[in-house]
What does this fold into?
Amino acid sequence: VSSAAQLQAVRAALAAVDGLELRDDPGTLTDFGHDESDQGSFPPQLVVFPRTTAEVQAVFRACAAQGVPVTPVGARSGKSGGSLAVAGGVALCLTRMDRIVSVSRADLTAVVEPGVILETLQRTVEAEGLFYPPDPNSADLCTLGGNVAENAGGPRCLKYGVTRDYVLGLTWVLPSGEALEVGRRTIKGVAGYDLVGLFVGSEGTLGVATRITLKLLPLPRAVMTALLPFASVAAAATAVSEVLAAGVLPRCLELLDDVALGAIDGQGFTFPPGCGAVLIAEVDGASQEGVLAELTRLSEVAAAHGALETLLAQDRDQRERLWAARRAVSPALRALKKFKFSEDIVVPRSRIPEAIARFKAVGAELGLTVATYGHAGDGNLHTNVLYSGPAERPCVEKALERIMCITVELGGTITGEHGVGLSKKRFLSLEQSPSVIDLQRRLKVFFDPQVLLNPGKMFPEP
Ligand code: LAC
Ligand code: ZN
It folds into this structure.
């Protein structure tokens, strides 16, 4: 935590920056102390709201001069605690930089500021027949800057890839306050090291983006969505890898297990009676006929592996209701027990059935409710451990550790989309060797010699 004198000096330096909003009222500090990670409360000591790259540079310079930590923050929808100010200091909130600078139909690109809300960008480009595929479920509030910091994913990433696959170039401000143009505006380009690739997903530890150049695609002309109920989660999980192995590539292939289904059933969407799990499949393409043929093939393969039926959404409204139910899973699970940890592990697709069965067994053994849902097509599972209060926390920690060990044992990774942040830093060494972690620590220090930017994240305690 920084001293009052350090903060006063930062304030004094920033008072010279015309129009830069600073806040340190208790309400604001409390709000900025938490996100969607359930990690606890870590309020910053001062929140600043820059509107330009120059203002971001000024904040970094003022904090570097005083040795005050800076934690970048957007909409606070993150699920790994990446934007929590664990060392106090300044929260650098980028939500006021919210302009869509340009959308080019001819180039299939868009340039945005980091505070643009994802859904706003999606609607804007779709109105012009263009498509920005990454779609984390918090699209209505999360920001592109946060998506870049965390390399966000979502259901459509099965076919289309993650945020990193769409970032062509960045205006990037280093912790020293130096601003760089990295990357390019063209679709292809291999000049130099892939700094964009390094910075996207750096979880606010290497700098911040103040301008983002994104690749767009033509908007698919046809989309169809179907719900496939199964008697058991094991059958649904097996069907996932069988569908993909059969050469069908839906844009989304989501799985909901019995606990996840139970949490949302009857609240705006009613699932067929007797189903123990469902898949939601969405196929897109250039024509209705092509998409229907693809979905028919998917349905046949799924039926051969236990799908009870294929219920095709008949119109936009039915599609939207189905997706609204899917988006409701996370809050509905939290409502079951008040607290939860939402993991985002990934396993090779062929190991999904085994992973889900073993996670359920961990829950049964420790007497905890474990729910699994998510982007099964990618092998990316949101395994949630639900609990009702702090007394259960040690048991929950044990469950999480076992879930991570099983994941790595199955050839998987501890995080597919939410990032390591605060919540998973103690698990990083399960997956990565000491030399790989050490190399990354050295990279961190190269970009941030004073270790002031988002300290206490990503790497295990030494
Ligand atoms: C989801 C979030 C938890 O897919 O990533 O619902
Ligand atoms: Zn997800």
Observations:
- Residues 6 and 66 are 6 Å apart (CA to CA).
